[in-house]
Design a protein that fits this description.
With 144 residues, this protein is α/β, with parallel strands linked by helices. It has a domain of 75 residues: Nucleotidyltransferase, domain 5 (2-Layer Sandwich). The protein is 27% helix and 16% strand. It has three helices and five strands, in the order αβββαβαβ. The chain has a five-stranded mixed beta sheet with strand order 3-2-1-4-5, with helices on one face. Strand 1 and strand 2 form a beta hairpin. It starts with 21 loop residues before the first helix and ends in a 6-residue tail after the last strand.
Length: 144
């Protein structure tokens, strides 16, 4: 017999280079279930906003309407004074500026027939914006 006694093991113990992730997955699944069950029960926070006795909101300004007909004819109407006039693509901005007068921040809306090409509407809008009219928008009919 030799003098080496191995106590029932034939190979010396080696270091493990693997991590067992099964317990971590179990913990994560339990946490996920807990959050999924408790999330619908949590009520969102309600803000208690301060109130003001009277606000300084000005009345909405009445816009100037630029209408583009199906045949390409352009008309400009001041909804405030009911003044109306026809215009060409080249002088739409001048007509609108004349109707604005001293109210330079007054809104301008473009109302076009739905058969008018998109390019025509964009050209009119571009002309108004080049003339430094700051508030230009499109007028649409609400869906029924």
């Amino acid at each position: 017999m030799s003098g080496d006694i191995h106590l029932g093991r034939r190979h010396p113990r080696r270091a493990m280079n693997e991590i067992n992730v099964v317990p971590y997955i179990d913990v994560m699944l339990v946490l996920l279930v807990i959050f999924m069950v408790t999330a619908p029960m949590v009520s969102p926070g309600v803000l208690d906003l301060p109130s003001v006795a009277k606000s300084n909101q000005s009345q909405p300004q009445i816009p100037i309407e630029v209408s583009i007909q199906a045949d390409g004819q352009i008309s400009v109407k001041d909804r405030k004074t009911s003044q109306e006039g026809n215009a060409q693509k080249a002088n739409v901005a001048a007509t609108v500026k004349r109707m604005m007068g001293k109210e330079a921040d007054r809104p301008v809306v473009i109302a076009a027939d739905k058969s008018v090409k998109y390019e025509v509407v964009m050209n009119v809008m571009d002309e108004l914006q080049r003339a430094a009219i700051p508030r230009v928008g499109l007028l649409v009919k609400p869906a029924p």
